[in-house]
Design goal:
This protein has a single domain, classed as Alpha-Beta Plaits. Helices cover about 20% and strands about 35% of the residues. The chain is built from two helices and seven strands, in the order βββαββαββ. The strands form two sheets. The protein has a five-stranded antiparallel beta sheet with strand order 1-2-3-6-7, covered by helices on one side. The chain has a two-stranded antiparallel sheet with strand order 4-5.
Length: about 80
């Protein structure tokens, strides 16, 4: 789902929110979760349709992002990045 410049996808217990306007194409998330994230033709990270990964890798991918472009929620509580 795309909403106000954010790509939102439920991956297991986590809701992943990707804010492409913050993406600098560092690709650290791709290195950790290549079956979930990829670079598009505009050199921005996107979530692969049908892609998935283990919850620990999803969290590590978000934590590896230098700009905080990947937010992680569980039960509507923001887990990453910390406020």
């Amino acid at each position: 789902m795309v909403l106000e410049g954010k790509i939102i996808k439920q991956i297991g217990k986590y809701k992943v929110v990707l804010i492409q306007s913050k993406c600098i194409a560092a690709a650290s998330c791709i290195a950790i979760s290549p079956d979930l994230f990829r670079l598009n033709e505009e050199n921005l990270v996107e979530i692969i349709e049908g892609g998935t990964d283990e919850p620990d890798n999803v969290m590590l991918s978000a934590q590896s992002c230098p700009t905080g472009a990947i937010e992680i929620y569980e039960n509507d509580k923001k887990l990453w990045p910390p406020e």
